[in-house]
Amino acid sequence: MGIVVNNVDQEPFLYLPGRPSAGRWVRFKLVGTRSNRDAIGSRITISAAGLTQTDEVRSADSYVSSSDVRVHFGVGDAPVIEQVQIRWPDGSVEQRTGLQINREHVIRQSED
Predict the structure, then answer these.
(1) What pLDDT digit, counting tens, does each position of 21-67 carry?
(2) What is the pTM of this model?
(3) Which domains does the chain have, with CATH numbers?
(4) CB pairs under 8 A, 24+ apart, for 78-85?
(5) How far is CA 60 from CA 42, 86, 104, in A?
(6) Which of 4, 23, 39, 109 has the greatest count of CB atoms below 10 A from its CB?
(7) CA dist., res. 80 & res. 66, Å (int)
(8) What is 5-65 written as a DSSP string?
(9) pLDDT for 69-101, tens place per residue?
(10) Are the C-beta atoms of residues 43 and 84 closer than 8 Å to each other?
């Protein structure tokens, strides 16, 4: 299946996606209970296969826009997420270990 893109005063462009990437991923949906419900401003740090990555929950990237508040990480060939640290907007910190890859994890503040 492909996508056709029409730009003003240009020829249409046909995008045919290649085969899916073989890389693995993990996604987090945080739910604040003591902080704001969407956990905006929370910082997530993951460690997997010797690599550490950090990202922050944000709701907008520019004027009058909103974005997905879930945080997505690519983890290459990592078999498991060894450690996750969440720093919530209220300053509290939680950690999880041994999380599965290729799935979304919903984490509620102050719950194990």
Answers:
(1) 678 999 999 999 998 999 999 999 999 999 999 999 998 767 777 78
(2) 0.77
(3) 23-108 (2.60.40.10)
(4) 78/24, 78/48, 78/49, 78/51, 79/49, 80/48, 81/26, 81/46, 81/47, 81/48, 82/47, 82/48, 82/49, 83/46, 83/47, 84/28, 84/44, 84/45, 84/46, 84/47, 85/44, 85/45, 85/46
(5) 14, 20, 21
(6) 39
(7) 31
(8) E--TTS--EEE---SPP--EEEEEEEE-SSS-TT-TT-EEEEEETTEEEEEE--S-SSTT-
(9) 999 999 999 999 999 999 999 999 999 999 999
(10) no
CA 41 to chain centre: 13
CB of 57 within 8 A of CB of 39?
Answer: yes
Tokens of 78: 């990592």
Which token pair is 51?
A: 């690599």
